[in-house]
Write a structure and sequence with these properties.
This protein has about 500 residues and is of the alpha+beta class. It is built from 21 helices and ten strands. Among the domains are: about 100 residues, no CATH class; about 190 residues, no CATH class; about 60 residues, no CATH class.
Length: about 500
């Protein structure tokens, strides 16, 4: 407990948050009491004695949304995540939380205009011919419709006044909560709560500098343009500063509006599949992905195509993580559970002390019941429970570098389920995963890798002796270049022969 003392200044904030949840009966609401085991039901009933007047107003999701909104940006982010999982928490609960995505109360437009001028260091009229009221407000910022002097419609994102201080307080409270979890709940340690909190905190800090978001938006737009699955608006760099971001207007309607999915002629199965494929293409092919793909950040244009906005959280994967992800997904698609197990051990996700065959057997128990079935036929409650039990049984710890990936995968799957409840997740993922496997692990890639190794060997051999081996005197005779060329050619021939054998 010694390392907790530095963060105890946040303890009153945690206590106040817990008290707010109890007073609103949003911690273990009465509506779910009958489904709780006896011990939990008794504890929930005891807490309910402390509930206040707010506990009698609205459904559980509405009560929780009000508390989370009061608690600040980190709590709102949690609510946004929960709202994407209607299959786990129920459609009514998810819809009640949906207002946290883009329907929070805005701050005054006059403050926003003043902030834009201050951040850009120029009058509003020098860039915009119009600057309208806010069209959407979230936990960190709000968005205004505007028109550039050249007539282009744009969206101007402005950070909320004082939001940096609120985020700093939230991060301190989150860190303390993680430390308490590690100290008081040993079973939670394998989930690495402090590492998780640190990853979320870093993402939040980056969100507070809209110059980083502009760079991420530009990078992702380039990546998305290589596939037909999703697009993104262009950055207007003249309108970018630390607290202001200007993007070309994203045509279409937000998925957070229920009427969008009822639009005549909308191909919901294709739209849902494109969301899955877009995310995987970003992660696997480019190692960079939009890590906040909830309905408030996804638009559907007139042609029924997906448009992404709000690039405050960008996830990244290294080459190793991309390969592990692709091989795990491909193994599940092929129902090759021994290979999936082997990848987990190779990546260090499962300690080497465990039995690979037993882990493969556990993966088969998870994968077979859901393979080839539509989303509506799969109980995510049961699946997540089973996955958690398997990871606990095999001592799998949370990997900080994969936190944003895992969080985004869960969010994307939840949004895709809402678009098309009959979606086959595996069938949607297959084309992108197959493309990556074929390109990166197939014969062509092996030939390229071996040829590259041969080229490097040839360059080393052809280099002047004093450069290649500075501590050794150069050979006499004057025919070094000829010998190097011959050795290099032989090396290349052997490399290509090996690649042919391995094809």
């Amino acid at each position: 407990m010694g390392d907790l003392t530095g963060g105890l200044s946040s303890l009153p904030r945690l206590i106040a948050a817990a008290w707010g949840l109890i007073r609103a009966d949003a911690l273990a609401p009465r509506e779910i009491s009958a489904a709780l085991p006896p011990g939990a039901r008794f504890a929930a009933g005891t807490l309910r004695l402390l509930a206040g007047r707010e506990a009698r107003v609205g459904r559980p999701g509405e009560r929780l949304a009000r508390v989370l909104e009061r608690e600040g940006p980190v709590a709102v982010k949690l609510g946004q995540f929960l709202s994407t999982r209607a299959d786990v928490f129920g459609p009514v609960f998810a819809e009640d939380l949906a207002r946290l995505k883009d329907r929070l109360p805005p701050f005054a437009s006059s403050l926003a205009a003043a902030e834009v001028e201050r951040a850009l260091g120029r009058p509003l009229s020098s860039l915009f011919s119009r600057f309208d009221e806010a069209v959407g407000a979230a936990s960190l910022a709000q968005v205004h419709a505007a028109t550039l002097l050249d007539g282009r419609p744009v969206a101007v994102k402005v950070l909320r006044p004082g939001v940096e201080a609120r985020v700093a307080a939230d991060i301190a409270a989150m860190d303390l909560a993680a430390r308490l979890a590690e100290a008081l709940a040993p079973a939670a340690r394998r989930l690495e709560p402090r590492a998780f909190a640190a990853t979320v905190a870093r993402a939040l800090r980056l969100e507070l500098d809209l110059r980083f978001e502009a760079a991420g938006a530009d990078e992702l737009r380039e990546a998305m343009s290589l596939d037909p699955y999703m697009s993104a608006p262009a950055v207007v760099w003249d309108g970018v500063a630390r607290r202001v971001l200007t993007l070309e207007w994203a045509a279409g309607e937000a998925l957070s509006d229920d009427r969008v999915l009822d639009r005549p002629g909308l191909d919901r199965p294709r739209l849902a599949g494109d969301l899955i494929r877009a995310f995987l293409a970003q992660a696997l092919d480019h190692g960079v992905f939009h890590a906040d793909l909830h309905e408030g950040n996804l638009f559907v244009d007139a042609a029924g195509r997906m448009v992404a906005v709000d690039f405050g959280i960008v996830g990244r994967l290294g080459k190793g993580e991309r390969r592990y992800l692709a091989e795990i997904l491909w193994g599940f698609l092929q129902r090759d559970y021994p290979r999936v197990a082997a990848v987990h051990f190779e990546a260090g996700y499962v300690p080497a002390t465990h039995d690979r065959a037993a882990f493969a057997q556990a993966l088969r128990a998870v994968g077979e019941p859901i393979f080839g079935r539509s989303a509506s036929d799969v109980s995510m409650n049961r699946l997540l429970t089973q996955l958690f039990e398997v990871t606990a049984l095999f001592d799998m710890r949370l990997r900080p570098e994969l936190v944003l990936l895992q969080k985004t995968m869960v969010t994307v799957e939840g949004v895709a389920r809402r678009i098309d409840p009959n979606l086959d997740i595996w069938a949607s993922a297959e084309p992108v995963v197959r493309r990556w496997i074929t390109r990166e692990l197939g014969p062509t890639r092996r030939v390229k890798d071996v040829a590259e190794q041969a080229r490097l060997a040839l360059e080393r051999l052809a280099a002047p002796p004093e450069a290649a081996l500075p501590a050794v005197a150069p050979p006499s005779g004057g025919n070094f270049d000829t010998a190097s060329f011959a050795i290099g050619a032989l090396t290349a021939a052997l490399a290509f022969a090996l690649a042919w054998v391995l094809r």
